[in-house]
Amino acid sequence: MTNAVDSTGDVLQQLARLLSDRKQADADSSYVASLHKKGLNKILEKVGEEAVETILAARDVAAGADAQALIGETADLWFHSMVMLSHLDLSHEQVLEELRKRFNISGLAEKASRAAN
Amino acid sequence: MTNAVDSTGDVLQQLARLLSDRKQADADSSYVASLHKKGLNKILEKVGEEAVETILAARDVAAGADAQALIGETADLWFHSMVMLSHLDLSHEQVLEELRKRFNISGLAEKASRAAN
Amino acid sequence: MTNAVDSTGDVLQQLARLLSDRKQADADSSYVASLHKKGLNKILEKVGEEAVETILAARDVAAGADAQALIGETADLWFHSMVMLSHLDLSHEQVLEELRKRFNISGLAEKASRAAN
Amino acid sequence: MTNAVDSTGDVLQQLARLLSDRKQADADSSYVASLHKKGLNKILEKVGEEAVETILAARDVAAGADAQALIGETADLWFHSMVMLSHLDLSHEQVLEELRKRFNISGLAEKASRAAN
Questions:
Q1: Per-residue pLDDT tens for B83-114?
Q2: Cβ pair B44:C52 closer than 8 A
Q3: Of B49, B55, B60, the CB nearest to C52
Q4: What is the 3-state secondary structure (H, E, C) of A67-116?
Q5: Can you give the pTM of this predicted structure?
């Protein structure tokens, strides 16, 4: 990566903003808008399909294949799960907040402790 | 959220660090270590299961259920896909980088434009 | 079981009868009854899980593993899809009839009725 | 098809024969041949997709939709799992035999009739 400042989180935040914009776009010109138009079942079919393709690509990697296909399938899986959240007016930040709570990941305190080291 | 400094990205980064630590932990005391010990198929079964549970929870939300169960299932899905990446010595940052490239999401420029506001 | 002529088809027929009987059984002593009691989502989770386990077992067979595990997972997948049909008061015969029509598979009775026209 | 006695089992038997024939067919004119040519991953993707579509159609039925779509998706799921078995040179009869053993479904009468020949 050639970008020093950008953090990984900003990718999801910006993707969420982009998904929100495209939710209102023309279904003929935007893949995201076309998914919303087809409805929740279509979006969930894609989540399921991408999960299966991720599983198969992971087996390919374990069998010696290049990892890039798996990275792409996992990106597809996360992308379509974000479209699902957007369709239901939910946010990826709620998912991250859930992970934070489960794993006791703290924000400020952890940063402070890092700063102290 | 009451946390001003922590960004969403830090949750995934810290989770990745935690997953890396637990990969070496005792399989009797750590769920993550037990998954690695059981092997890739077990981890992929979990990815598949959580995808299905996410799909069912999304239908529940569309039928009027509270969204929290869906948030939890999506967190499970992302978590287990991160365990999968960790098992294969891959990083969530590669997935985010793939999303960034696909959607032409820029880091520095976006931050610069925010700083200008 | 009192069936006179056993054939592969009779296995599904007898299984359907058995599933119908157990639908009313005590959920503490019957796995099938316990699935019905837990409800459709639980049954569908099992269909999804068994599909994923079938997929992984098929990859194992392709990589040289003994086929018996795949036979067992496919049996689990068909079994749980029959529980799903039973839960919704549908019959596996409707599924077989659909396959027959699609593939233009004819039987005697059906042939006779066509011959009469 | 020249089968003399139609029963539900014969549908799977005849479908298996048809799948065996088409395995060698021209991939340009036969869907089954095209699946074999694309390989196991493609066939397993279809098994996964049809499982997800079955799950969604089952939820639709529970919400009041006509059952025919679910019958069609279940037929797709069974069909593609039979293509998978065919691809790996396995038989649906092994799956039915596994179900028979698990559920203690007897073929005594059938055995008797075979002994009589």
A1: 999 999 999 999 999 999 999 887 544 444 44
A2: yes
A3: B49
A4: CHHHHHHHHHHHHHHHHHHHHCCCCHHHHHHHHHHHCCCCCHHHHHHHHH
A5: 0.88
